[in-house]
Amino acid sequence: MKKIGIFYGSTTGVTEKIAKRIGEALGVPPENVFNVKETSPSKVGDFDVLILGSSTWGSGELQEDWYDFLDGLQALSLKDKEIAIFGCGDENMSDSFCNAVGIIYRRLLQTGAKFIGDFSTSGYSFEESKAKESSGMAVGLLIDETNHPELTRRKISEWCDELNNRIK
Fold this sequence. Notes:
Blueprint: E1 4-9, H1 14-26, E2 33-35, E3 49-57, E4 61-62, H2 66-74, E5 82-88, H3 99-108, E6 114-115, E7 141-143, H4 149-167
Parallel strand pairs: 1-2, 1-3, 3-5, 5-6, 5-7
Antiparallel strand pairs: 3-4
Helix pairs in contact: 1-4
């Protein structure tokens, strides 16, 4: 079985709660769920699968704790890692909904990692997102706890089921 580590950045606690819920759904022990503010990027070396989560802030930016952590990840070879990304946003920020997911994805493309966990954007209404591919799918799980908390449980469950099928 592959070892999973969850790494998140959270300002208000929403992304932290989602990270923990994803951990529970995937059977990840709580000690393998990390706040990037308090974690060295080298910690990812302990895991086969990395689940990375960030909220989107301002005009579509990463949560502030991610900048240094991502710089550190980009300096590492992640060629033997699988990465899945999730993010929290507010669809009222229609031109930058969950941009952080796409930012993380693009910043890590050159690391050699294999990306898993693309997911449907259904249920949300937004104009643009750096997380959305031309196919209409997102490069990860998008969550809007502000406007659509009723979708969160189902989306986490479906995404985690898909991840479990790909990880094994």
